[in-house]
Amino acid sequence: MSLPRYPTYKDSGVEWLGEVPGHWGVRKLLDLARIESGHTPSRQHDEYWVESECVIPWFTLADVSYLRDLRNVYIRTTSQKISPLGMENSAARLLPPGTVLLSRTASVGFSGITEIELAVSQDFAAWICGPDLRSIFLLSCLRAMKGEFSRLMMGSTHQTIYMPDIMAFRVPLPPLDEQTHIAAFLDRETAKIDALVAEQERLIELLKEKRQAVISHAVTKGLNPDAPMKDSGVEWLGEVPAHWATPSLNARYVTELGKMLDEKRVSGRLLVPYLRNVDVQWDAINLANLPEMDISEAEYDRYTVRPGDVLVCEGGEVGRAAIVDSVDGVIGFQKALHRLRARSSDEHARYLFYTFVWAALTGVFQTGGTSTIAHLTGEQLRRYRFPRPPVSEQVSIAAFLDAATARLDLLTHEAQRAIDLLQERRTALISAAVTGQIDVRPAAERASA
After folding, report:
1. Domain limits for position 375
2. For residue 251, what is the domain's CATH number?
3. Are 404 and 273 within one domain?
4. Of 386, 408, 441, which residue sits at a domain end?
5. Lowest mean pLDDT across 73-87, 104-118, 154-168, 359-373
6. Would you state the pLDDT for residue 326?
7. Domain identity same for 420 and 323
8. Which of 386, 403, 430 delimits the end of a domain?
9. Per-residue pLDDT tens for 331-387?
10. Which of 107, 323, 371, 435 has the smallest number of CB atoms closer than 10 Å to its CB?
11. Looking at the structure, do residues 107 and 49 belong to the same domain, yes or no?
12. SS (H, E, C) the chain
């Protein structure tokens, strides 16, 4: 899209703005809108939080996920509510529809416009625009200030933009009719971009479904569509090829839960780097900058890993798995992980890895068909009966899945890259419009100006 620039520009005196059209103003936001900051009624007063009396919509950090999607502009609901008594006894205020909100703590820089009366927590700054500033134009300005927010954020644990910095914000001020034109232009053009993003998101979902289906079919049915089938004897598995077995995992692999970390008993004489749950992601193991614990040589066979071992997460994302490809020196593993080591050469670790991918995708590690079990005990793990083809088929299936998932992952990466580029284009377009780098007025209006 090629759009003209304004005929004349001037220095705005504001770093993030740069030059603005010659006839625009640049004003302190406080001169154009009344600022409000939210509050949380005291949790020490139970009477402020009587559930039946909490009827006032209250926008908090719990709602920021809604604003992270830049397609969402208007706030129509909140996940929490407060009581009139709580609001009366706090600094919270009821804000009118049309108020512009900006998250300033923890999740910094997300903005939206209220369509209902509500209160906000202290994690937000809120502006009620005066007659010279449209709410929708202010929202676009705030969304163009991402770089400025990054400059102003402070704090190591929870980053924050402090109120003195917020109260010093300066914004461009086109005439009201131009604010309207800019808002209408951005509404049209971002809607086009958002439609393209939605197409790519749908493609990613379809690729995800395809990936799951390919893995599930290969792991449980094999690669020969004409193979005779039999009942596996496992309710959640169904039929498998007639020549496959379904023994317990314990019959196939020696399973060992890692060593319990007891910091009080660390001597410092027998230190060995060890893997934690967080170090084992799907098909990837972090071996850098590992913490250490005491593991004696007598414990190496039980509590250390070697190439070909399969590590499985005991908690967190239960069943998440990866294969140990190589080890430089001695590396242990913590109790948050199971180590699976093949009992014979009839097992192929890569096929077992895909078995865990399939199990996690299809809810095998769920209890009652609804929630994931909190912890996968050694006893539970050893009892699972997974498909076991002959080792030659395990090798073929794993090779097939490596190639098939690589193709699907590449397509997913390309779709995500397209989304990223579209989002960059969206951000750049908003910035160009609200700073006057493009003139979006109707042609007749530009000609008469």
Report:
1. 247-386
2. 3.90.220.20
3. no
4. 386
5. 359-373
6. 87
7. no
8. 386
9. 999 999 999 999 999 999 999 999 999 999 988 888 755 667 788 999 999 999 999
10. 371
11. yes
12. CCCCCCCCEEECCCCCCCEEECCCEEEEHHHCEEEEECCCCCCCCHHHHCHHHCCEEEECHHHHHHHHCCCCCEECCCCEEECHHHHHCCCCCCECCCCEEEECECCCCCEEEECCCEEECCCEEEEEECCCCCHHHHHHHHHCCHHHHHHHCECCCCCECCHHHHCCCEEEECCHHHHHHHHHHHHHHHHHHHHHHHHHHHHHHHHHHHHHHHHHHHHHHCCCCCCCEEECCCCCCCEEECCCECCEHHHHEEEEECECCCHHHCCCCCEEEEECHHHEECCEECCCCCCEEECCHHHHHHHECCCCCEEEECCCCCCCEEECCCCCCCCEEECCEEEEEECCCCCCHHHHHHHHHHHHHCCCCEECCCEECCCCCHHHHHHCECCECCHHHHHHHHHHHHHHHHHHHHHHHHHHHHHHHHHHHHHHHHHHHHCCCCCCCCHHHHHHC
The reply to whether 79 and 105 lie within a common domain is: yes
In a domain, 238, yes or no: no
Asked if residue 199 and residue 309 are part of one domain, the reply reads no
In a domain, 230, yes or no: no
